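Predict structure. Chain length: 241.
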Amino acid sequence: MKGWRAMTRDSKKLERGRGEEVKRRLLFELIKCSRRSDKELSKVIGCTRATIYRRRKELEKEGLIREYTVIPDLAKMGYEICAFIFLSWREHPNEDELAVGREWLASVPNILFCSAGEGLATNIVVSLHRNFADFSSFIDFLRRSSQPKLGDLQFFIVPLTRTDSIYKNFSFHTLTNEKPDDQACSDETEIKKSRESCVYYKEHAILTLKKLKNEPDKFKHIVNNNKFREIMLRRMLQFSP
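Prediction complete.
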């Protein structure tokens, strides 16, 4: 049988593992529907509202949750085009020019995303437009403002009003159906082992107390001379995996 230190390590490991498991499940539940209250989420996940609140704050602090928003029907909002614009530089902008560019990107509300990358071009811009004239003006502006360093500009436009051409709507909901990776599976295995170990120690603690019940002097000796064992015995009696 393992010693009390091993039992403590297993108990702490289980608590950490369960905390990470709750956070992962909470993140997936929020992806499914972020408007649910902590009370509703606590019922789904099977923990207290205080735990949900604490784990949600941890997810926000760690950056796993960046913001709470909705995914609207863009066509009903009046946008007819979603454009994917691919840019390649003839001469890469310097740091000052990039800083100005970032400020400009932040000020344009219809630009959803912009990043450097690899593939068809070195940069991509994703933007929304109310009609083709609006999109054409935007492209002309990009060409003029990016000269003379712009090397190539290509685009792919999605007609948002043609629902028959959209084969799958944009959503994060399907991420919740993704199979866990090897690391997640490994973590769950460790959690299961720790849980089984703690169940064993709980049963052992109960048997120990039952044996000591009829030996008050021996129990008193343990309490007086080894506070750690007393605390662990009581903790394991209260522990519920």
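Summary: Residues 69 and 183 are 29 Å apart (CA to CA).
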